[in-house]
Amino acid sequence: MQYVEINVTVNGELYNKTVPANKTLLRFLREDLFLNGVKEGCNEGECGAFTVLVDGEPMNSCLVLAAELNGREVLTVEGLAQDGRLHPLQEAFIEAGAIQCGYCTPGMLMSAVALLNRYPHPTRAQIRKEMEGNICRCTGYTRIADAVLLAVEKMDTAEKNQSPQRNQKVLAGTKK
Ligand code: FES
Question: Residue 163 carries which DSSP code?
Fold first, then answer.
C-alpha cells in the first residue's frame, strides 16, 4: 500500500495527514477527521449526498482521492455554522420543511452554498438546474427550492440590517 502526505485545510483548520494513496476524500473526511455530515450514497457520483466544496466548487467526495487535496481547502456541512449560529440555508431548510430523513441534506446544503455563490438571487429554474445532481427521495424538490429562496431573503435582510452599522463604523473611523 502506498501512502501520501497531505496538507489540507478543512473547515478553516489545517491538517497534516498521511493517507493511503487510494483513499477517497469521502472516507478521509469520515474516518480520519470524523466529519460524518458527508454521506456515502451510491458511491458512483450520482446521488449528491457526498457533495462538499473544494476551493469553493462542489465536488463528488466519493470520486476524488484525498491525496489530490494537498494544498486545497475543503468545506463540509460542519463548517457552515458560524459562532454557534446556523447558516441561513440551514435555518431555511428547517423552516421550509425541506428535511425529512435528512440523508440528502448535507449534500443539498453544500450544493446550495455553491449555487448562491454563483447566483446570489437564483430563479426557481436555476435552483432546479444547479441542484439536479442532488437526489432526495423524501421531500420532493419544491420545498428544497422554497428553502433556498427563503435563505436568499434571510441573507438580503441580514445584509440590509448590517449596512447602517458598517456605515457607522466607516464614519466613526473617518472622524478619528
Ligand atoms: S430528506 Fe430524505 S433523502 Fe432527502
Answer: H
Structural domain for 23, as ranges:
1-79
Residue nearest to atom 3 of ligand 1 (CA): 136
CATH number at residue 65: 3.10.20.30
Are residues 75 and 9 located together in one domain of the fold?
yes
Residues 64 and 123 reside in one and the same domain? no
CATH of the domain at 117: 1.10.150.120
CB 79 within 8 A of CB 37: no
In angstroms, the CA 111 to CA 95 distance is 18
CB distance 134 to ligand 1 below 6 Å: no
Q: Which of 136, 142, 146 to mutate to test the pocket of ligand 1 (most atoms within 8 A of CB)?
A: 136
Write down the pTM of the prediction. Answer: 0.89
Task: Tell the residue nearest (CA) to atom 4 of ligand 1.
Answer: 136
In a domain, 176, yes or no: no
- How many CB atoms within 10 Å of residue 70? 12
Task: Identify whether residues 28 and 17 lie together within a single domain.
Answer: yes
pLDDT tens for 121-168 read 999 999 999 999 999 999 889 999 999 999 999 999 999 998 554 444
The residues facing 20 across adjacent strands are 3
Q: Measured in angstroms, how far is the CA atom of residue 33 from the centroid of ligand 1?
A: 24
